[in-house]
Design goal:
215 residues; mainly alpha; Helix Hairpins; minor pseudopilin epsh fold; 3 strands; manganese ion binding
Length: 215
């Protein structure tokens, strides 16, 4: 596993460095029994790594098309950039949203905002779970921040569509509901996976993201 953060915004294609797979901040088995080691290893080292690799390939082709003024190719590459770029962005957030020391409830400003915008933590948890269960096929359930309105919002995104790039909401907490995130352990029972994942949510990370986007 190679270590890196997102090195450059998507679209900064001049003299850019390649995207690399970030290290997990914990071992593959650290989230057991809620998410087992086999799922984490495949999810990180295979699925996320594939998004990174394909994103680099698509960006290189886009750079070449840009240099040639080949607009047709630039347009044709947009789905690959969106899918693989979104996959990289989403998973980079997802790994930090989880922790072996997670679970429970958030504290401080984030908790106050959740109570303000959803009535209670229980209501928020129920709504995000329901939205995530209801994603048709593959996708993500999200808690995001609406900067214009100064409030929290729940949203679902299909496939690997990135939250901010498609809705404008700043991502705080993402729940991956692609089958590769849970099938080996929970089979086709997505609600059981969603019940378990609350035990490993890293509220310190989510709270930090909320504090940053409020500035």
């Amino acid at each position: 596993r190679s270590s890196s953060k997102l090195v450059t915004p998507l679209g900064c294609l001049v003299s850019r460095q390649k995207h690399t797979l970030p290290d997990l901040p914990y071992d593959y088995a650290a989230l057991e029994p809620h998410i087992n080691a086999e799922i984490m290893q495949l999810h990180h080292s295979k699925h996320h790594a594939t998004y990174v690799n394909n994103l680099n390939i698509a960006e290189e082709k886009y750079k070449e098309a840009l240099a040639k003024g080949d607009v047709t190719t630039q347009v044709s590459l947009q789905p690959a950039l969106k899918f693989n770029g979104g996959g990289h962005i989403n998973h980079t957030i997802f790994w930090t949203n989880l922790s072996p020391n997670g679970g429970g409830e958030p504290k401080g400003e984030l908790m106050e905002a959740i109570k303000r915008d959803f009535g209670s933590f229980a209501n928020f948890k129920e709504k995000l779970t329901a939205v995530s269960v209801g994603v048709q096929g593959s996708g993500w359930g999200w808690l995001g921040y609406n900067k214009e309105q100064g409030r929290l919002q729940i949203a679902a995104c299909a496939n690997q569509d990135p939250l901010q790039g498609t809705t404008g909401l700043i991502p705080l907490l993402g729940i991956d509901v692609w089958e590769h995130a849970y099938y080996l352990q929970y089979k086709n029972v997505r609600p059981d996976y969603l019940k378990a994942i609350w035990n490993v949510i890293n509220w310190e990370n989510v709270s930090s993201r909320y504090a940053i986007c409020k500035k």
